[in-house]
Design goal:
- By secondary structure, the chain is α/β, with parallel strands linked by helices.
- 40% of the residues lie in helices and 14% in strands.
- β6, α8 and β7 form a beta-alpha-beta unit.
- The mean pLDDT is 96.
Amino acid sequence: MKQSVKLIVGNWKMNGLGADLAEALALGAALQASPARARVGVCPPATLIERLSRAVGNTIEVGGQDCHAEPAGAFTGSVSAAMLADAGAKLVILGHSERRAACGETDADVAAKVDAAVAAGLEPIVCVGETLAQREAGEAVEVVSRQMAGSVSDALKGQAFAVAYEPVWAIGTGLIPTLEQIEAVHRAVRAALIARLGDDGRTAPILYGGSVKPSNAAEILHAAEVGGALVGGASLKAEDFLGIIRAV
């Protein structure tokens, strides 16, 4: 299956202060000196989006970690897609498993956020993935296919977007599925995209997320239908993140 250029995105989660911009600057300098063969993005906390965007220019694509489905209103503590774009974001992670679990986000919630992100000109990264219990019950493909059906909005037709498969049990644990397991789910994601979006679903990158590190990145990134990576802890240090980026 022909795919677009691979996309490697760092998700800083709730980590990062102003002093930590030095890591992003080091990453940007390294990529400027030796350009990557992939698109590279970093999604810092909302407090750093504008500063990071100004600091790295076009070297790194900056993104948000979530957005509200509404464009504005009485939603204390929330950030809209338009606010992210105004701060310099180009990407936004939606439906991350940590938000699905901790905040009770449903597939319908994620789809509504996708609509909002597209309306604001952001490139959504839609996250799906199964729990360990679901994996052990042999339900991984079924669960992910169901999440795809509910989370992927028709608004993505003709738009740039990505999907990230993140087995919940592999995030931050050091555990990873076998390549065969990764490829099986990525094939199911591709089938779901084509079923929903037709030809528009054929080339969107499908990222793998879950304990990606420099030592295993090359093997994962060259697996069938793996169009990039969504990287957590290893993206916080420029040296580690570069090791993953250079594995493409």
